[in-house]
Amino acid sequence: MTQKLGRHGIPVRTARNAALAALAADLPSPILADVTGMHRHTALRWVAYARRDWTEYLAARAEEQGRDGHE
Predict the structure, then answer these.
(1) Which residues lie closer than 8 Å to 2 by C-beta, 6 or more apart?
(2) CB 32 within 8 A of CB 46
(3) In whole angstroms, what is the distance from residue 16 CA to residue 20 CA?
(4) pTM higher than 0.70 for the full model?
(5) Bigger pLDDT: 50 or 55?
């Protein structure tokens, strides 16, 4: 199925990762592990990734773009 979708330009891995990130943002890691069948440590990593605070990164990017004259 992945190959068929790929031939039509549908990025399966990107969609899969986006779906996992959305689930990880809403579910505790034990539930995510049960629902998806992934290992509990993998589920913990996904939950940590989905809930990461990007405030510092965004501030640094805004500052960098301000110096470079980009919007």
Answers:
(1) 12
(2) yes
(3) 6
(4) no
(5) 50
Residue 49's contacts (CB-CB under 8 Å, 6 or more residues apart) are 21, 24
Burial class of residue 44 (count of CB atoms within 10 Å of its CB; 0-12, 13-18, 19+): middle
What is the total count of domains within the chain? Answer: 1
Rounded to whole angstroms, the Cα distance separating 24 from 18 reads 10
Which residue type is seen at 69? G
End-to-end alpha carbon distance in the chain: 40
User: What's the CA gap between 70 and 51, in Å, rounded?
Assistant: 28
- Strand residue runs (E) in the chain: none
Structural domain containing residue 52? 2-68
Mean pLDDT, the chain, integer: 87
Q: Is the dihedral of CA 45, 50, 54, 55 positive or negative?
A: negative
- Enter the tokens of residue 51: 């809930």
